[in-house]
Every structure is written in structure tokens, then in C-alpha cells.
User: What shape does this take?
Amino acid sequence: MKKPLIAGNWKMFKTADEAVSLAQGIKAGTYKNQDALVVVCPPFTALHAVCKVLQGSNVSVGAQNMHPETEGAFTGEISPAMIKDLGCRYVILGHSERRQFFHESDTFVNEKVKTALKYSLIPIVCVGETLAQREAQSHLTVVKNQFDVSLADLGKEDILKCVIAYEPVWAIGTGKTATPEQAEQMHAYIRRLLTEKFGAEVSAKIYILYGGSVKPDNIAILIEKPNVDGALVGGASLKTESFCAIVDGATEKCSAGAK
Assistant: This one.
């Protein structure tokens, strides 16, 4: 049974000093918990400071985005080499907000995934549908297309180094949450896509996270679903108490043998 993976996406919140304080709180609040993989993803301006605070701890650090090129004339962008140099282990790619507000395509996400892997970064590749797409009953098709293109040309060794996050766009920052049954349906579907492309043995090893208004009071019922391996947490990751409670809730459920 895999340890649950709980990743916090801090989005465009926290100055460097605020991020350090939050990282210190999470470090202290999770250091006794060896039953979860914990990741925090601060904004770029706080990565250096947070990496220093968390060095040697059981909390890994990830970036929220990166450019697929190693270097060049890309004003305002951050390269994988820069992220790696700071001490980051993970990078979120294809988040719905990047797709929606910055018009990132699945093909562009695929370029980023390939580059991240070259730099030994673990991509957290996001897929998910909008409310209109779900109401039109096209959510499975939408996620399949994102899956096929964003993960194109990857072999078994490559996909084993990736994490997939299902984020129903209609449940991000809205307070709405997909029901555990809705989450499991999509996670099981993604697992099936992985099995068809890479085989059952590989598919079983890959983490599929749920991201969509995850909170301390719903993590246990989500994580008990067989294909939900953890969570990509937004708003609740911005406070030490709520994020640590999510980590504890996920591991308590798994320790009880629910998965």
C-alpha cells in the first residue's frame, strides 16, 4: 500500500517571510508523521527560503510551474535548472489556472513534462474538466484528451516518475467538492487509461491525487477510495493547522487499513 501523498499549492500567496513561517509550522506539525509523503509548493519568490527551512526534513518542496526550455530569452519565466538548483523535487504542471488564465495547451504541458523528467524533477501533471464539460457529459473525453496529449511519448520508466492530479475545475476555490464517488469514478478511469497504456503493474504504482477544495473534514472519506492516493491541496494548505490536519487525516485512514 502506498503512503498517501499530500501536496500543498500555495498559489500566489505568502511573501518570503510568511512562507518561511508557514513552512516552519508544517515542518514542526508533520515531523512525527512518517506515514505520508508531504510536499509544499510556494511561489517562486519564496522557493529559496522555504527550501533552506525544509532541508533535511520529511517535507519536500515543489515549484508551481516552469518553462520547458533550459534557458533563453523568455522574460519572466523560470527554467527547470533554476528550480532544481534551489533544491526543489517536484513541479506542478498543467494546473487548470495555467490552462484557463495563461492559455497553456496540452502540447505545451507535454513539453514541460519531458523537460522536468530530464532534470529529475517529479511532475505533478494536472487534468480536469470544467462545470460546463461535466454537465455536457463530456468530462471523460476531456480528461482522456488531456491525458493522451500531456503524457504523450512517455515510456514506462518516465510515467513511473510522474504524479497525476485530477482537479475538477468546478471544485477549485469554490467550496464545492466532488463527491467521493465522483472522485473515485474519475480516478478509476485515469487508472484504467494508465493500465491500457503502460500495463497494470506500472499503473498501480502511480499516484493519482484529488484536487478540489480538500479540507480536514473531507480528506478521510476521499482517501479511503481505492484509487485516490492523496491530495493536491489549495486554500487549506495556507494554514499550518488545516494542512497538518489533512496530512494526519489521510494517514490515520490509511493506517486503519481502509485503503
